[in-house]
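[recover] target loaded
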């Protein structure tokens, strides 16, 4: 299809003036110009798109309640956390009420990366006080992504494994211990009993090192390819880490804020309570805000260094007003329930699709409105990923005006993570289009 002039000009301007490694969706066919949005629709000069990729706009693009709260507070005042504000205290107490009772203290920041960086600082001090042997060491999962600041790139193998200039190994820092992706579909251990086998890797690091300060995990690995933690994995890993004075961070930046449907936080579905929960993305529905929620004891260990914590924008009055409006919208619009019921319907439709297209759909996984389809050339014991097919489907969906993305170490997992306002009709449109493109793919890829 012909690329419109506006797209051509914007891509050229972007390529000339922004960093060469700052990417654009669908760059090869001119990108998508998005200048307005509403619920699950993104719009621009090219018309409307069904947005199945924006979990940041959790309560829907440009939610009127969130917009009104932001505009109102911007016209009232924009102050930092050193000034008292009733809105901030109201917001913090509402947000903490969504978490288990033990997690009773919140630090407000501006992004998921900042949240994880602060979480690491806190964990180190706590572990030191607990007499942990290697308080600065971190166990992270291969293919994890936790953010873009230096301390967090260190614990984000998803990111640094992209390095192609010959220096990849230099990104693997001595304090970082990497365990396998607990992928019960395609990893070294498979099936319903895989969890404890993956947890054994965490236990082994604990016994080899004498104990590390931090274990960090995403509650479902997004960039890693929508990997759901297998049963008992977190329970056993947490126990092994805590036994030697370490603590456990659940990164809920992608998965938090009712997306799971059954629960407000994804970690709840595994029956664990983390020591630290980090959050961001949907927290402000697009406005930059993040948070680190901890047990009081962890916050006290952090404060015991005597170093003040100050963050110019963290906890500013506008962010808090927007954050509160997001929580209110989730509740008033019944979005957790919607994520549950529409998520179940999505799972049902995708499972039928797998039955229809046989070997090509190796796995359908996830809960609520955070799901994925893994495309494979071949299933069975020697699974062969099929990134080309996944790309074919994602590009086809774009032609049908549906935005999705693909990820995972092999780029063969289609990710579905729309705003929580997604409807059954949206599911039908999405799955109908995937079905169509898989049908067309048969001629290209000779099933
Ligand atoms: N954690 C996870 C799980 C993420 O997916 C991301 C962003 N994709 C981050 C942290 C970093 O958040 P941010 O980009 O807001 O810094």
């Amino acid at each position: 299809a012909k690329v419109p002039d506006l797209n051509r000009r914007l891509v050229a301007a972007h390529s000339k003036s922004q960093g060469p490694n700052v990417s654009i969706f669908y760059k090869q066919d001119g990108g998508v110009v998005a200048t307005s949005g509403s619920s699950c629709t993104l719009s621009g000069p090219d018309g409307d798109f069904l947005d199945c990729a924006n979990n940041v706009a959790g309560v829907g693009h440009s939610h009127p309640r969130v917009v009104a709260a932001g505009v109102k507070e911007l016209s009232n005042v924009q102050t930092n956390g050193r000034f008292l504000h009733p809105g901030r205290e109201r917001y913090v107490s509402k947000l903490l009420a969504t978490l288990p009772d033990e997690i009773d203290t919140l630090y407000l920041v501006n992004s998921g990366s900042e949240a994880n960086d602060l979480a690491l600082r806190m964990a180190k001090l706590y572990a030191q006080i607990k007499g942990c042997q290697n308080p600065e060491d971190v166990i992270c999962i291969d293919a994890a992504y936790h953010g873009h600041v230096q301390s967090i790139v260190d614990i984000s193998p998803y990111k640094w494994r992209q390095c192609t200039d010959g220096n990849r190994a230099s990104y693997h820092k001595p304090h970082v211990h990497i365990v396998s992706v607990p992928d019960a579909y395609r990893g070294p251990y498979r099936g319903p009993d895989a969890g404890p086998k993956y947890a054994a890797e965490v236990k082994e690091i604990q016994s080899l090192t004498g104990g590390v300060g931090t274990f960090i995990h995403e509650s479902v690995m997004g960039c890693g390819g929508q990997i759901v933690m297998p049963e008992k994995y977190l329970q056993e890993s947490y126990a092994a880490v805590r036994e030697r004075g370490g603590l456990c961070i659940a990164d809920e930046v992608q998965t938090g804020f009712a997306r799971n449907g059954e629960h407000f936080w994804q970690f709840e579905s595994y029956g664990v309570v983390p020591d630290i929960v980090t959050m961001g993305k949907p927290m402000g529905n697009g406005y930059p805000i993040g948070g680190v929620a901890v047990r009081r004891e962890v916050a006290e260990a952090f404060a015991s260094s005597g170093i003040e914590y100050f963050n110019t924008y963290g906890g500013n009055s506008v962010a808090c007003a927007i954050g509160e409006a997001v929580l209110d919208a989730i509740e008033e619009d019944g979005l957790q329930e919607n994520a549950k019921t529409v998520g179940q319907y999505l799972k049902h439709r995708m499972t039928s699709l797998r039955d229809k297209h046989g070997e090509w759909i190796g796995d359908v996984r996830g809960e609520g409105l955070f799901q994925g389809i893994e495309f494979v050339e071949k299933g069975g014991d020697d699974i062969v990923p099929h990134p080309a097919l996944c790309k074919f489907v994602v590009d086809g969906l774009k032609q049908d005006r549906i935005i999705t993305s693909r990820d995972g170490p092999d780029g063969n997992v289609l990710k579905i993570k729309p705003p929580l306002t997604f409807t059954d009709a949206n599911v039908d449109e999405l799955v109908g289009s995937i079905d169509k493109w898989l049908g067309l793919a048969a001629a290209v890829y000779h099933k």
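[recover] notes: The first helix runs from residue 5 to 17.
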